Amino acid sequence: MAETASIAWTDEELRAKVGQLFVVGFHGHVPSDDIKTLIKVHKVGTVILFLRNVASASQLLELTNSLQATAKDAGHQQGLLIAIDQENGLVTRIKSPVAAQLPGSMALGATGDAKNAYKVATATAETLKSFGINMNYAPIADVNSEPKNPVIGVRSPSDDPETVARFVSAQVKGLSEGGIVPCVKHFPGHGDTAVDSHYGLPVISKTKAELDACELVPFRRVFVEGVDSVMTAHIAMPGIGDASLDDDHPSKKVPASLNPDAIKILREELKYDGMVVSDCLEMDGVRATFGTEEGAVMALKAGSDCVMVCHTMSAQVGAIERVIQAVKDGELSQDTIAASVKRVETLKTKYIADTAPIPNSSLEHVEARNTRQAKMAAEIYAKSTTLVRSENGLLPISSNCNKKTVFISPGKTPPGGGAVEIGEEKTREPYTPDSYIDVLHAHDPTIAHIRFRDGIEMPPEEEKLVLEADTLIFATRNATQSPYQKKLGLSLGEKFGKKLIVVATCDPYDFLVENDLIKNYITIYEPTIPAFNSAADVIFGVMKPMGKLPVGSSGPEHDIKTFDGSDEEAKKISEMWHVVFPKWPISLPRLTKILLRSHGRHYIHEGGFCLSFFMDGPHGKIASLGVLPEYRGKGIGTALLKKAQRELTSMAEASGQGPLKSLAIGSDSPRLWCEVPVDFSQAAKDFLMHRGFRHPTKPTAQDLYRDITKDVAPPEILAKVAKLPLKFSPWSAELYEETMTKQRANFKGLSWIGAYEQLAAWNQYHQVMVAFDAETNSQVGWTLMCDYSIISNNFAFLPLMPSKEKTGLIACVGVDESARGKGVGLVLMVKAMENMKERGIEGVCVDWVVIKGFYERLGFQRYWEYQGFEW
Prior knowledge:
Elements: H1 11-19, E1 22-24, H2 33-40, E2 46-49, H3 57-73, E3 81-84, H4 105-111, H5 114-130, E4 135-136, H6 161-177, E5 181-187, H7 208-213, H8 216-224, E6 229-232, H9 260-269, E7 275-280, H10 284-287, H11 292-302, E8 306-309, H12 313-328, H13 334-351, H14 366-384, E9 386-389, E10 405-410, H15 436-441, E11 448-452, H16 460-468, E12 471-476, H17 483-496, E13 500-504, E14 520-523, H18 529-539, E15 561-562, H19 567-580, H20 588-595, E16 600-605, E17 608-615, E18 619-627, H21 636-655, E19 662-665, E20 676-677, H22 682-689, E21 701-707, H23 715-723, E22 726-730, H24 736-746, H25 753-761, E23 768-773, E24 779-786, H26 788-791, E25 807-815, H27 824-838, E26 843-849, E27 861-867
Parallel strand pairs: 1-2, 1-8, 2-3, 3-4, 4-5, 5-6, 6-7, 7-8, 10-11, 10-12, 12-13, 13-14, 18-19, 25-26
Antiparallel strand pairs: 9-14, 15-16, 16-17, 17-18, 20-27, 21-26, 21-27, 22-23, 23-24, 24-25
C-alpha cells in the first residue's frame, strides 16, 4: 500500500483520493456544469451514464470524449471510468438506432447455451468501447428464485444457481476480453425478494447455509475466475450477522451494501480482492433509512471501495464532503481510503491506460456494426423463444384472409402515473409497445388490434371483434403483477380455449401454471421488438420454437441416496470407481474399510457416487466424486456435490463447533488423494471451479518416492550424518512422555501428533525414529517410518507404488526448535531409511510435500502431484 495512516494528507490530496471513490451521474446530452464541477473540484473518478444521456451516436462519442478531456484538464492522474448499465434486453441504456438491440439475460438463459451469452457480451463490449465507455454494471448474477421479484425478474438468466453461474461467467469473459470492466451485481443476491430496493429495504431471511446453496453460487464462480468488480445490494440479510442478536436488533436491518458482515463474506470467506461498489445510495433502500450522505460513510467503513450517487448534485456533494470530514475526524481511516484508492487505480491501469480521444471517423462503422450485431441477435432471439405448451392443431396459424385474427395488448394508462427519477420507464411497466401490431401485420395485414387499459372498459365494437375472431393473440407484460391483465387473460382462456394464444412478453410467470385455461403459451423474456419478431415467426410458422423455459423448474430430480453401509452398495461404488478412475485402482476390501469410517458420509446414484468426510474444526472433505461417462452432463455430479455440501454443513451446525470453516477437495484421513491430481482432466477441474471452488493459487503438493534396495542416501549426505553430534534409536515406551511433551510444544495444532499417540496405543513404537543430542541425551527430532502393515488401511494408493506391499512411509518429520537449521531433519530421514531397509522395506514414500528441493537431496523423486481446490 502506497499510503498509511502515519502520512498526513493535505486537504487537496484527501479530496483527490475521496473523489476517486465516487460514482456520479448527471442529466443532459452534454457535460453539465454540475458534472464538470464534480470532476474538476471534487475529483470524482467515475461517471455513470443513463438513457437520459444518450441522443445519437455522434452525441454520445462527443460526450465521453469531453468528459475525459475535463478530467485531464483538471489534473486527474488517470482517466475516468465511464460506466453504464447496458445489461441488454429489458435494461438497455444505448438503444436502437444508436446500437443494436441485444438479448437480455433470461432470453440468453432460455437458449440453454452459454456461448450465446459470450457472443452478446462480446458485442456489447465492442459497442461500448467504440463510444468511449469502459465499464459496464453487468451482468446480473442474481438468482431469480422469487417469481414476484419486482426488480430482477428477466434480468437474471434463471432461477437455477448453476445456470446463472454458467451464463454470468460467459458474460464476464466476453466483456473483459473486449476491454470493458464487468461489474457483477447485486451481491450477495437480490433474487429472492418481493420488494424493490428503489422504493424500500427488502429483507431476505435466509441462513448463511441457504445463501451458500443458492445466492452465492454464481458469485463464487466469477470470483474464482477473477471478475474485476462487484456491486453490492440494498437488501437486509439478518442471517449473515451475529446469530445471537434478536431479529429486531437495528444491525439486522442494515442493507448488505452498508453491512461489514456482508463485505466480510466477500473479502475473507470468498477471498475477493477486486473493486467493490455500492448500488446507488439515492435508492430508498438507503436514503429513506440512513440517508445518502451517512450511507456513503457506512458503505466505505463496511469495506466498499466506491459509492454511487446517481442523480442529485446536492446529495453527491453532500456525500463527498461527509466522507472527507469522516476521514479528518478519524471515523474513516486513511488506510481504508488508501486501500480502496489502490484498487481503483489498479483497475484503471488495467482497462484505461489510454484515454486519447476517439476520432469521429470511428462513427463510420456504427451502421455496419449495428447491422451485423442485429443479425446475430435475431439468431439468438430465435433460439430463445419458448413454446411452453400448445394445443394440437392451432400453431402455426395461417394468414388466410378468410380467417379473422385479433391481437389484444395492454396499453399505457393515461397520464397520472409517476416516472422514476432517472427519466426512464420502470422495468415493471404493465404495457407493451404500440409497434407490436406492425410486426404481426408483416405476416397478416388483416389482423385487428385492440389496446386495453386498466380501469377502462372495452368498447362494444372491440368486444364484437373479439367474439367473431377465429384466433386471438393476447400479449401480456408482467401479468402476475398486473391484476387487470391476469383477469382478462383468464377470462379469454375460459371463453375461447384453444383459439387463444398468449405471448408473455416479459416475465414468463404470467400464465405459467394455468394449463387448463391458457392452452397455447409462448414466452419471449423481454418486450423488445426483436424478441417479439421471433414470437410472431413461431406463431405464423416461419420458424420452430427452440427455447427452453429457464424458470419454474428445479431441473430433473436425481435419486441421490445416502450410502447405507451394505456390501451391495459398496460393491456398486467399487464397480463405478474402476470405470471412472481406471488409473487409480483400489481393492474392494480396502475401499469398503474406507467407506465404513465413522466420520464418513457418502452418497450414491445409479450413475455416480460421492465420498465425503467430516473433520473436527469443523472442516469438510470431498474425498472423491465420480460420474459414469454415459451419465455425464445431466446434473448428477452437481446433485451429488450439493448433497454432500448440505450434509457436511448440517453436521457442522449439529456438532456445536460453529459453521463449516472449510470445504476442500481431497482427503487426508483416510488418505485417497490429498488434493486433486494435476493429471486429472481439465474438464474435471473446470467442473469444480464452475461450482465455486477457488482456483489453486498455492504451490502444488507432491507425493515423493525412492527405492532403498541399494543405497539410502548420496555419499555426501552420509558423510554429514557421521559428523553430527547425534544419536539415533527407534522409539520406545520409556521415551513416550518426553516425546509427546516436546511434540505438543513444538507442533501445536498439527494433527500429526495423533499419529504418534496412535502408534503408542498399538504398541508400535518401533515405527518411529528418534534423534538425540549426543551430549545431553535429550530428544531433538522424530519421524514416522511406518511399514506397509501400519499404513495400508489408511493410504489407498500405496499399492500403486513400484514396491507395492514393501512400500513404507516417512511422515511427520519434526525437529525441536533448539536444533533447527543444523541438518537434523535430513539426517533423521537417512537413519529412518536405514532402519526401514533392515526391516525388509524396499521403497519409501513421503506424502503431501509442498517444500521443493529438500527431499530431492536424498534421492526422492516426484511420483504424484496435486492442486488444491477449496470452497
